[in-house]
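Many introductory courses stop at the sequence. We go one step further.
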Amino acid sequence: MTPFHLPRFEVEGCGPPSVTRTLGKPIPNPESATMRAAHAGWYRGSRAEGLVLELPPQGRRRPEPLYAVLTVRGDPKSLPFEEVIRLLRTTFDRHPGSLTSALRETLLAFNHWLLEQNRHAAPGERWEIGLTLLAVRGESIFLLQAGPAWAAYVTREGVQVITPEGESPSALGAARAIALHYGMVRLRPEDRLIVADAETGPLLDPAALIALTRIQNLPLIIEAIEVQVARTVSHPVAFLILALEPTRAPLPPQEPMAPPPEPVPSVPVPSVPPAPSRRPFGKLLPPGRLRLPRPRWPSPRMPRWGRPTVSLPTAPGWVRTLAWILPWAIALLTFGVYVHQRNLLIAHRLLAQAQAEAEQAAQAQAPGEARRHWEAARDLARTAQQYAALPEAAALQEQAQRQLDRLDQAVQPLHAVRLASLPPGRLRRLVLRDNELYLLDREGRCVSEALRPGGCVLWIGYDEVHRALLSESMQELLWSGMLLQGHPVGALLDLAWAGAEGGRSAGGLIALHAQGLAESRNRSPRWVSSRLPPLTEGQLRFYGGNLYVLDRERGQIWRLRPTGDDYTGDPEPYFTSPRTDLGEAVDFLVYQNVYVLYRDGRVRAFAMGREEEGFPLREQPAPALPSPVRQPVGLTMDPQAPRPWLYILEPDRLIQVGPRGDFIRQIRGESLKDLIAAAVDEGRRRLFFLRADGTLWVADLPPVE
């Protein structure tokens, strides 16, 4: 089953940018139960807004209530909500067929409308939306999803996550071909269906969700969910909860019962001789006519139509079973042939459209026009392969991807190999040192059987010769709550490798946590003395023997100079005055200059606390960058390389730029889908990357031409 994301919007008007909560009206069910709905959304200063949309029935053609949960990337205030409401409800009511077909046509119409809106909009004014549509019929909920989403079916026995698996689907408004995911849930009175966005849903604790089935007040459930995610989530969130409330049918009216008769005293009855039995008279015949009784003697019974009846022997059990199964088998076979032929016809039609787009792309003169046609050809060919495995569609998809890579100056990672499978998660960071990897998991799931609240650090050894992990790999080095020289380690925030520079006697891995610093040398942890103030959010980098800490709350980057192996000096502010825009910073690097990556895709360079005005990536889109940075994940580089490059991470690619911001190339491929962390080794031409599903990969870096 698959839900999708929608904006929080009320029919009377758009809700304010603060915490809002609405309890939906009960949906009557004349049979045995009433469906209840509660939805909530809040805005946390991000540039997107989480919304829930409730669309009641408007006519007799579609009596089912419709709910929509969406996540908007872009400026939600510029989205015409009234037009979106009218489009969704009108399209849904226009299709009186099955619920799944009506939901599918509604979603495709919305994606077509959104794509046309984005085509005529500037790059910074486009919307990318994830959508979940839910139609309610009695006790059943029909669910259709496109784009990244999350939903869970919660019962007292457990939690079943119904979000789509595999590669993350593309958001609405980005392409014509959209992957659709269907599902259906039949609720019981104690069950709950919870729908949220894909980034917030995985943060919910399954054990805590099971406890919510015993709460009958749906607003209290929303408050409990807010408590779980409020400390971690900094982006807008939308929640929709559906539940079933049993109703007792009225008892039929009962007639008053007559009182039992009173007992009568027994009296002896006199014995009377029995009277001769008399037969009652029948109907009198008319006078003058007498009918004699018909004589009764045994005679063979003749069938109605003149043929004797013959009783057949009982058929064996396997014959009766075969007679029952054979019609169903023929029906299923006929239906399967019909579905196959239908899918084959749809695939050929999509392939014809993809070939037409490819011909237009080959004749296009402008690179932007050619890119649009090649993207449409690739998406149509990919959709055709989902209906039928056509070799022509696979070849056309590869051809379109090669042409797009040529236009976008993109290369594929070579010889990608999966090294390990960890529990899924997103709040992770990867640090590479020689053949050792250090993984920070802020969700505390380094080892699946032991949860570490507050985060943990995992050591991973890599075997360069066999291109695999060492046998003794996967060891925990640090975790939150660990005691080091009598000091408890706080919630882990970031990692950095600190070399033997600036008076340090040896290199080691330094971890930034809420209470200060901790170091691991040769897998032996120790407490690092420092004067850092307590932090709730921060990032750590090392350069030239100094530590740099990005403090979003105070709008400052602190520089810590080493005093031996500790950092007991006072933190030095890098900026002369605090910068309020650091609250939107995603990641930063220090190499000669300070590079800061922002949520909107900008990269700014600072030297000696002042911004470098000539840095090309200061504003987007940068010169020679094929497509702007829309979903930045982080920054990484190899400071040990003779000629280091900067790599900007996105969920499906790495953008390689020079220290002055000049665009070099892109690295993208199917193995990089849903990328969350990466580390590069320029000397060995190695790329280590981690995906949100928990898989750790290694690949070869193509040489720079």
